[in-house]
Automatic annotation (TrEMBL):
Principal location class: membrane
Annotated localization: Cell inner membrane
Provenance organism: Metapseudomonas lalkuanensis
Biological process annotations from GO: amino acid transmembrane transport
Transmembrane segments: 30-52, 58-79, 99-124, 130-155, 167-187, 199-219, 240-259, 279-304, 324-342, 348-368, 389-414
Protein name: Amino acid permease
Pfam family, one: Trp_Tyr_perm
InterPro entries to which the protein is assigned, alphabetical: Amino_acid_transport_2
Keywords noted in UniProt: Cell inner membrane, Cell membrane, Membrane, Transmembrane, Transmembrane helix, Transport
An example Gene Ontology CC term for this record: plasma membrane
Protein's membrane topology: Multi-pass membrane protein
Length: 418
């Protein structure tokens, strides 16, 4: 009976209609789309932000989170209008091929690949450590336990990713609310600590904030899911980014107000555990595990569909054997690299990821301008004043500055205090 049920479920998944681009079309609800943005943005890195801002303080971090969030949202809305002007349901690389040409398409594809592989390696390693601490097993076995359900959802496609992101994101928000409330009522909490710090150290915090928002990749996925209600796309983007900003701000706010800047640990779970008790340690680590899972789905799913969109000879994405092959290309190398000892390779991916941000700042602008001239459709929504050239120049400058900081950091050209 169970085998029949599984086969029936699989047949239903692969019965989804396929667009001429080869990508399957599955409807998303508004909540699922918002959860995809939140889940992709909120990786385990949110737990290291308090430590990263321990010299500058909370206020510079809050400022840069707001700046980075606003301009990343605008860039995502550029992609939204571009997708809404296009009849076929392409990924970023496909949209770039259509509106910018082969060079732009390859640049976007490599950007997606580098960022995705680097992040998936980190999630493989981080999940293994958490499950090792929870279950008393080896980190490699812990990563395998994380890998199996994560990869299964990617195999099932956009519908499963949307539902998974929705339920796990609701759980993540619930855990954060619980930890924040416990922090607010704790006798050691002092909100005056949020005003401590030194603004001279604000530049390094800027670079951290820029890379906290990584959901540009999934906008075309959302556009595909909103093919039945395209006007919902920009609303979901803005809502998802607002929720992301609140979560990114509230975690370091709580930890800093509870323990002070001088007592920050590299991972906020330790500080919370020391101040609130063992239950907070387990709750915060469960949150970190969920954050890695949702971000894994967002980035991994985007990488998978970008491969199908870039290499049309693979055929439609809903062919089980082909999808399984591409899934292996996306998921297996990060698992192996996480335990290969190739630290230099992982660092190179992270460094390259800084420069892929420049590509992500420039390409949506070029794509939007071209789509307004050569697009197929009159879009259900347009960017309006946020597409002003001055705003576009400022977006490019933000990401160029971030890449310049990464280069200076690699060459040891930054002040020693940073």
């Amino acid at each position: 009976m169970s085998e029949t049920r599984v086969q029936s479920c699989q047949d239903q998944v692969w019965a989804e209609p396929v667009d001429s681009s080869g990508l399957a079309v599955h409807r998303l609800s508004f909540l699922e789309a918002v959860a995809m943005i939140v889940g992709t943005n909120i990786g385990a890195g949110v737990l290291s932000m308090a430590y990263a801002s321990r010299k500058a303080g909370f206020m510079p971090l809050l400022l840069w989170l707001a700046v980075a969030g606003v301009f990343t949202t605008i860039s995502m809305l550029y992609v939204s209008e571009t997708a809404l002007r296009t009849r076929t349901h392409n990924q970023l690389s496909g949209l770039a091929q259509r509106y910018v040409g082969s060079f732009g398409a390859w640049a976007i594809f490599l950007s997606v690949a580098v960022n995705s592989i680097g992040a998936l390696i980190a999630y493989m390693s981080g999940s293994g450590k958490i499950l090792s601490a929870f279950l008393g097993i080896s980190p490699a076995l812990g990563s395998l336990l994380f890998f199996l359900p994560a990869a299964l959802v990617l195999y099932l496609g956009l519908g499963a990713i949307g539902k998974g992101e929705k339920f796990i994101s609701i759980g993540m928000v619930s855990m954060i609310v619980l930890l924040v409330v416990a922090t607010l009522v704790n006798e050691n909490t002092d909100v005056a600590r949020l005003l401590e710090g030194d603004w001279i150290y604000m530049v390094p915090v800027f670079n951290i904030a820029v890379f906290c928002f990584s959901a540009q990749y999934i906008v075309p996925e959302m556009a595909r899911g909103f093919s039945h209600a395209p006007s919902q796309l920009p609303k979901a983007v803005i809502t998802g980014m607002l929720v992301t900003f609140c979560l990114l701000a509230i975690v370091p706010m709580s930890v800093i107000s509870l323990t002070g800047l001088e007592n920050q640990t590299e991972v906020a779970t330790l500080a919370w555990g020391q101040a609130l008790g063992q239950w907070a340690f387990y709750t915060a680590n469960t949150f970190a595990l969920c954050a890695m899972l949702t971000s894994y789905w967002g980035l991994g799913g985007s990488f998978l569909t970008n491969i199908f969109d870039k290499f049309h000879k693979l055929g439609p994405e809903n062919q089980p054997k082909t999808r399984l092959l591409v899934l292996g290309i996306v998921c297996v190398p990060p698992f192996l690299l996480a335990y290969s000892g190739m630290v230099g390779f992982v660092n190179a991916l992270y460094f390259a990821g800084a420069f892929s941000g420049v590509i992500l700042s420039i390409m949506p602008i070029l794509m939007l301008r071209s789509a307004r001239r050569r697009g197929d459709l009159q879009p259900a929504w347009q960017c309006g004043w946020i597409a002003h050239p001055l705003i576009q120049v400022f977006i490019v400058m933000i990401y160029l500055a971030s890449a310049a900081y990464a280069l200076c950091s690699a060459l040891n050209l930054l002040p020693s205090g940073w």
